[in-house]
Amino acid sequence: MSNEVLNSLLKEYDQKKLRAELDLEKRKENLYNQVPKLKKIEDDLNLFAITTAKNILKTNTSSIDVLLKKVTSLKKEKAKILNELNLPTDYLQPFYTCKICQDTGYIMVNSYKKELCNCLKQKLLNYSFNKSNLSNLNTQNFDTFNESIFSDEVDLSKYKFNISPRKNITNIKNSCMKFVKNFDSINQKNLLFTGNTGLR
Ligand SMILES: [Zn+2]
Torsions phi, psi of 197, nearest 5? Predict the structure, then answer.
């Protein structure tokens, strides 16, 4: 897989992530104008998050308990308001296409190691699949195979075979079908297709 493909997919991811975050800003603005109380709750929650972090650093456990209680009650109040407006509880979060990697394409395995998220793996697979022409399988398969487009004329000087092209292609088709049928067998040998560049 070339880096070019991965880089272009990651650019798409950056765009998706940015769109989701800009969309959140717009939704927030509209909602806060409609319900200013929600803006106050969000500001308080942000402030408490900073204060809690500071108290953790100071190991001030009694203050942390008080703060956590306030945070829980504010979150409940926020959920109640959203519920009354028939909005989902995650309405004030970005609507990422992939909730797992938040449209970054990567997930952290631990604090220093990250790996490709399944959504990005799938996109890379789709790319290889399309490039290999395997995506045409629903229209190009044994059932739609039409040997009648090959001539049934036997002409050694013209076709370099002492059988007709139709008979030849039918033999090839039968060998391929046998290969598919016995694919799981350890005695089945590989198939090798050769020809001039561009032929398929
Ligand atoms: Zn993902």
Answer: -55, 135
Instruction: Verify that 31 and 110 share a domain, yes or no.
Output: yes
Residue with tokens 């631990």: 110
- The CA 13 to ligand 1 mean position distance, Å, reads 9
What residues form DSSP beta bridges with 106? 116
Same domain, 150 and 194: yes
Task: Please tell me the distance between residue 114's alpha carbon and the centre of ligand 1 in angstroms.
Answer: 12
Ligand 1: distance of its center to the CA of 127 in Å? Answer: 16
Beta-carbon contacts of 91 under 8 Å, excluding residues fewer than 6 positions away, are: 27, 31, 82
Q: What pLDDT digit, counting tens, does each position of 56-105 carry?
A: 777 777 777 888 888 999 999 999 999 999 999 999 999 999 999 999 99
Range of the domain at 40: 3-116
Ligand 1 centroid distance, CA of 90 (Å): 18
Question: Is residue 9 in some structural domain?
Answer: yes
Q: What is the pLDDT of residues 16-43, one digit of tens each?
A: 999 999 999 999 999 999 999 999 999 9
Tell me how far apart the alpha carbons of residues 164 and 150 are, in angstroms, rounded to a whole number. 8
Q: Are the C-beta atoms of 119 and 97 separated by less than 8 Å?
A: yes
